[in-house]
């Protein structure tokens, strides 16, 4: 993996895929049944979506979850096993 790929965050990926589809934050938030503010926080890396939401995002965008955020998924699973929250 090159340096540029290692700097991609979950939020940057969500924003990139959303804009590639020409969707607004309001439209994507509606599809995901979350507030626009929650989506904005994800895109700005203030918070991260939980695993179930990440699966829904990947399904909506038609991308493989491993390709989308392999490192983030591993980190989130570790937190969930410890009973901690990432949001």
TrEMBL record:
<dbReference type="GO" id="GO:0003677">
    <property type="term" value="F:DNA binding"/>
</dbReference>
<feature type="domain" description="HTH cro/C1-type">
    <location>
        <begin position="14"/>
        <end position="68"/>
    </location>
</feature>
<dbReference type="InterPro" id="IPR001387">
    <property type="entry name" value="Cro/C1-type_HTH"/>
</dbReference>
<protein>
    <submittedName>
        <fullName>Helix-turn-helix type 3</fullName>
    </submittedName>
</protein>
<dbReference type="Pfam" id="PF01381">
    <property type="entry name" value="HTH_3"/>
</dbReference>
<keyword id="KW-0238">DNA-binding</keyword>
<dbReference type="InterPro" id="IPR010982">
    <property type="entry name" value="Lambda_DNA-bd_dom_sf"/>
</dbReference>
């Amino acid at each position: 993996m090159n340096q540029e790929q290692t700097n991609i965050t979950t939020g940057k990926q969500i924003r990139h895929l959303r804009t590639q589809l020409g969707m607004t934050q309001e439209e994507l938030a509606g599809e995901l049944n979350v507030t626009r503010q929650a989506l904005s926080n994800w895109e700005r890396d203030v918070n991260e979506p939980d695993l179930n939401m990440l699966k829904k995002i990947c399904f909506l965008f038609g991308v493989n979850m491993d390709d989308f955020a392999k490192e983030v998924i591993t980190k989130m699973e570790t937190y969930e096993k410890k009973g901690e929250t990432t949001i």
